[in-house]
Every structure is written in C-alpha cells, then in structure tokens.
C-alpha cells in the first residue's frame, strides 16, 4: 500500500496519523474567527485544515417545501430549510485564498470539499493539493470524475455508502485519472454515537479496496479516533471550533483546542504502540529481566546439607535458577557452604 505525499507530508501506515481539523461553518461568518481557528489548530499540531467550498445555490434550491426542510426532531438543524442552513454555514469564496495562505504560513496543508464543478475549478485556481469528497456526495459520480480529472489525491468519506457504491466511486475516480484514493469510515449522524461507528470496518475496507483508510469522526471526544488508529486508520478528520459554547452549525460535535491537542498526541501514541508482532523481551525490556523471580538461599546452608522449603525460596531478583527448577532442587545437597542471600545456581549442587 503506497504512501501518499502531500506537500512534503507523508500519509501512510509507516507515519503518524494525518490529522485534519475541519473548520466547516464554525467561523460563524467571521474571517477574524476563521484565522483564530486556524491558529489554534496549528498550535494543537493538526497537519491540515479543511473547509467546504459551496454556496447555498450550488447546494440546493431555495424552497420552503417539505422536501427542502429538515423535519427530524433529533437533528441539530431541525426546522431549518436546507437553503438557509447552507447560507449560514458556507465559507465565502473570497475568504479561501487568505485562509489557505494562513494555513501554509503556519505549516498546515489547506484542503477543501467541493460540491459542484464550479467549486472544483475555483479550488484548482488556488492550487489545492488534495480534495475531499463528503459522504453525502460519495454517489455523485459526475463530481467525483471532475475532481479526479485534476489528477490530485482524493479522500472520500463513506458515510451511508454500500460496498457497491464505494466500489463505483473508486472506479469512477481511477478511470477519470485519480491514482491515489483514501477512504474514510464515516457515520453520517451529527453527533454520531460510538456504538454506531463500527470501526471494525476499517481493516476490512482496507483489504477489500486495497487503499488507505481513515476515519471521519463525528463522535464526541477522542476515544473512537484513537481506537481507529489501532485498527489501521492513517487519517483522522474531526470538526474543530474555538469553543462549543460559541454556537454555530457544527459546534455541538466539534473538538475544542485542548481536545484537538489530545487527539494529535494520543493518536500518535496509538500508532507507535501498534508496532509489529513480537514475542520475548524487547531491547528496552532486557534490563528488566533481572527483576524476574528466581531461587535464592534464605538461610545459611552447610556443605552436604539438603535443600528444603525452609532454606531456599523463590523471590525477586532473577539472578538464580528459574522457579521451574524449585521442585528439582528440593532434597538435593549443597556442594559447599552457601550464605543466605546467595542466588542458587547449578554449581551449588
């Protein structure tokens, strides 16, 4: 499985997880706040910052009929029309270049999710190095072909998608010129619950489609993301805000700065801990072997005196014979005088 190089940052199983902070609409229509979010994401150690490129008109129709209203009472956006929601959440296109410039200034990779052909053309003019396809667009084959024709890597979220739909999306991308695809396991509920996340799918998806797989995570906290790294996730995407208390379309399921820092640190630790299949002491453990248990003389023993349960004992440290020889030693006789505190060895018999 080939690693992917994005502006000098390598993504793959032999590298720490690639952490994407998703700003989405958490800028709350303030460019100054957007810059502050970028600064905090960089301080937290995120490798990339993602926005979304659309307008309300490229996303939906300005209609107030049932089809275009969110009527799910459990939704964060219940009662809203799609059009007004996207009006609130969109990132003005004139902000994109300053946002991207700020990201690069602070050492992060800027990327975006396009939602129609015009947004792809716009992002190409800005030199975006990698694209993201959202879960709700993973069956929009014309959009995927348009993005793939740029020849740049594509990250595809797989929320709601069947195996057949994922396969169709990947084939469309590759046929249109994309050579590098990363899939993200995703549950398209906001927020998502851990029990509905099913990250056991990650290694299955990796083997089935022979590509890197990560996680687009809408659960609260960092536990699910950390666990996904142990299952082979190479990319983690989480929504990010300055403070959930500030409100905003995505704030309720977004990480705050201290949580993003924890995510960066703990996912890297999880990646380091996976390691490789190994048995026996590691090089670092070898110094600890001396603290194993072994057989010691716990009372002075004269030459010719037998070893008994009263004068030899299994204790730490491990300089004497291994405990498995304890029963063998009982009844044998001492070859020489042995003082208490001496490790028992074969030359003592």
Automatic annotation (TrEMBL):
UniProt-listed SMART domains: SAF
Gene3D superfamilies the UniProt entry points to: Aldolase class I, Antifreeze-like/N-acetylneuraminic acid synthase C-terminal domain
Keyword flag Methyltransferase: no
All residue ranges annotated as the AFP-like domain in the record: 294-349
Top-level taxonomic group: Bacteria
Transmembrane segment boundaries: none
Alphabetized UniProt keyword annotations: Transferase
One Gene Ontology term of the molecular function aspect: N-acylneuraminate-9-phosphate synthase activity
Catalytic class of the enzyme: transferase
GO BP, sorted A to Z: carbohydrate biosynthetic process
EC number, as in UniProt: 2.5.1.97
Cross-referenced PANTHER family: N-ACETYLNEURAMINATE SYNTHASE, PSEUDAMINIC ACID SYNTHASE
Stated name of the protein: Pseudaminic acid synthase
Organism field: Bacillus tequilensis
Taxonomic lineage: Bacteria, Bacillati, Bacillota, Bacilli, Bacillales
């Amino acid at each position: 499985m080939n690693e992917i190089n994005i502006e000098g940052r390598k993504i793959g199983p032999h590298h720490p997880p690639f952490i994407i902070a998703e700003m989405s609409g958490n800028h709350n229509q303030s460019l100054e706040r957007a810059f502050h979010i970028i600064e905090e994401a960089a301080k937290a150690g995120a490798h990339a910052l993602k926005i979304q490129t659309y307008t309300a008109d490229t996303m939906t129709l300005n209609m107030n009929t049932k089809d275009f209203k969110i009527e799910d009472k459990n939704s964060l956006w219940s009662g809203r029309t799609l059009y007004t929601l996207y009006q609130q959440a969109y990132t003005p296109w004139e902000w994109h270049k300053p946002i991207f410039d700020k990201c690069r200034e602070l050492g992060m990779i800027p990327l975006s999710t396009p939602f129609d052909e015009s947004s792809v053309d716009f992002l190409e003019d800005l030199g975006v190095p990698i694209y993201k396809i959202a879960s709700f667009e993973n069956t929009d084959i014309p959009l995927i072909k348009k993005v793939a024709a740029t020849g740049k890597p594509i990250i595809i979220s797989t929320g709601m998608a069947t195996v057949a739909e994922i396969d169709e999306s990947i084939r469309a991308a590759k046929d249109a010129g994309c050579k590098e695809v990363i899939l993200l396991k995703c549950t398209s509920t906001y927020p998502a619950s851990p029990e509905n996340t099913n990250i056991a799918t990650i290694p299955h998806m990796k083997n089935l489609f022979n590509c890197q797989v990560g996680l687009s995570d809408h659960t609260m906290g960092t536990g699910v993301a950390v666990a996904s790294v142990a299952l082979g996730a190479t990319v983690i995407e989480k929504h990010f805000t300055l403070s959930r208390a500030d409100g905003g379309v995505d704030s309720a399921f977004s990480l705050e700065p201290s949580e993003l820092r924890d995510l960066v640190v703990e996912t890297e630790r999880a990646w380091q801990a996976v390691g490789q299949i190994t048995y026996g002491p590691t090089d670092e453990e070898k110094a600890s072997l001396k603290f194993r248990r072994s057989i010691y003389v716990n009372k002075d023993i004269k030459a010719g005196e037998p070893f008994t349960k009263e004068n030899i004992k299994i204790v730490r440290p491990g300089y004497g014979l291994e405990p498995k020889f304890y029963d063998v030693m009982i009844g044998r006789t001492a070859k020489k005088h042995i003082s208490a505190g001496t490790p028992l060895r074969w030359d003592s018999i």
